[in-house]
Amino acid sequence: MSDDEVRALRAAAHPVRLRILSLLTSTELSAAEVARELGLTHANASYHLRVLLDAEEIVEAGEERIRGGVAKRYRHPWRQEDHAGHARGVDARTMAHEMVRRMELRDGAPQANFTDAELWVAPEVWERAVRLLVEASELVHAEARPPRTEGTRPVGLTIAAFGMTP
To answer: Are 53 and 60 in contact (CB under 8 A)?
Structure first.
């Protein structure tokens, strides 16, 4: 594992930074907006954003003028290839931790799906399943809005689909 990969894993391993990464996959936010959404101090949000920025887990997405100052906006550089085999800074343990947190926030609505399986399927079936999962992931990322936007609701989406050695 390279030094960059280790730095990215360490940066993403903190529970607050996992939540920040989740927030920034859907929209660009400033440190003040992250702080408000997560109930953090502005200084604490800024610190965690710097750690993620230094590890190249997030990028600066621009600046905006606010009350005579300048606020940087950040986003997660979500790309298709990240979900096709290269989860940036996320391993199974950090995914599982974040999934447990999100499961505690379930609202009980019937529009949900839970699958955990170890199966043997034909290659063409597997290829189709992965295409559908990628399509679903791209759809919700493309349609994601800033937190608490009118007409939206929070949802959790965790996908881990991979081939295994026999």
So the answer is: yes
The C-alpha atoms of residue 160 and residue 118 are separated, in whole angstroms, by 12
Q: Rounded CA gap, 143 and 128, in Å?
A: 23
The residues near 94 (Cβ < 8 Å, ≥ 6 apart) are 9, 12, 13, 18
- The angle subtended at Cα 89 by Cα 83 and Cα 95, nearest 5°, is 70
Q: Which domain holds residue 91?
A: 3-143
Q: How many CB atoms lie within 10 A of CB 75?
A: 17
CATH code assigned at 78: 1.10.10.10
pLDDT digits (tens, 9 = 90+) for 143-152: 888 888 999 9
Span 83-142, pLDDT tens digits: 444 444 456 766 777 788 888 888 988 888 888 899 999 999 999 999 999 999 889 888
